[in-house]
Amino acid sequence: MNDPLIIAGKAYSSRLLVGTGKYKDFTQTREAVEASGAEIVTVAIRRTNIGQEPGQPRLLDFLSPSKYTLLPNTAGCYTAEDAVRTLRLARELLDGHDLVKLEVLGDAQTLFPDMPQTLKAAETLVKDGFKVMVYCADDPIQAKRLEEIGCVAVMPLASLIGSGMGILNPWNLRLIIDNAKVPVLVDAGVGTASDAAIAMELGCDGVLMNTAIAGAQNPVLMASAMRKAVEAGREAYLAGRMPRKLYSAAPSSPTTGMIGKA
């Protein structure tokens, strides 16, 4: 099926984006990423060595930038200034790489986005030439403002980061999707394959996840399950589900022209 995900003018065949944190080692990270089929992988610049620590194992030795699109992110940043500084460092480490994921957190307890700081950082980064994919609240107004600033994708949370609670407010997601002219990807809260499928059936353009895979008992097998779920959910969305009929059953077989009846 020719149905690519287009982000910042580049086409990707996979609509599943995955993180690289919380695995037992870089070998397991690579195995899970390969099983997921993802082409875009996020990297927490403050927590993952991509060259900041000479002499230590580097993620890039296990996930080649020639094979994957790296998406540096600002996990652990609580101010716009920290987020901007972190992504400028990432651009230097990755030879001018400009596709990034912005997240500015409000507090360490919920990891909910601080939207005023997120908007401030997004405006600075876009003016600085970055292509910004942005983690945000599931607020249609804020999502639209981020799009108007120039972000290339908006990424509302489905539920709290790492919670595995799934899609808690599908109606807000639909409002964001219906009003967006840039890709909308669910970011945070997915716990299992059915959550990913639901996000795609709602019309999301993709799903980004980390803990749902890395925190599974068998991360590589879960990565494979997520790949299938995203693909199935996308196909179901494109196919168009049958209408819901409350208190109205309809037999699968025709009721007229039955054999043996006049």
Relevant terms:
35% helix, 10 strands, 8 helices, alpha/beta, five-stranded parallel sheet, single chain
Structure explained in plain terms:
- Strand 6 (99-102), helix 3 and strand 7 (131-136) form a beta-alpha-beta unit.
- This protein has helices at residues 26-36, 80-93, 115-127, 140-149, 170-179, 193-201, 211-214, 219-239, and strands at residues 5-7, 10-12, 16-19, 40-44, 69-73, 99-102, 131-136, 153-156, 185-187, 206-209.
- With 262 residues, it is an alpha/beta fold.
- Helix 2 (80-93) packs parallel to helix 3 (115-127), helix 3 runs parallel beside helix 4 and helix 6 runs parallel beside helix 8.
- It has eight helices and ten strands.
- Strands 5-4-3-10-9 form a five-stranded parallel sheet.
Helix-strand blueprint:
Layout: E1 5-7, E2 10-12, E3 16-19, H1 26-36, E4 40-44, E5 69-73, H2 80-93, E6 99-102, H3 115-127, E7 131-136, H4 140-149, E8 153-156, H5 170-179, E9 185-187, H6 193-201, E10 206-209, H7 211-214, H8 219-239
Parallel strand pairs: 3-4, 3-10, 4-5, 6-7, 7-8, 9-10
Antiparallel strand pairs: 1-2
DSSP summary: helix tally? 8
Strand order of the largest sheet: 5-4-3-10-9
Overall mean pLDDT: 90
Low-confidence parts, pLDDT < 50 over ≥5 residues? none
Summarize the structure.
With 262 residues, the protein is an alpha/beta fold. The chain has helices spanning 26-36, 80-93, 115-127, 140-149, 170-179, 193-201, 211-214, 219-239; strands at 5-7, 10-12, 16-19, 40-44, 69-73, 99-102, 131-136, 153-156, 185-187, 206-209.
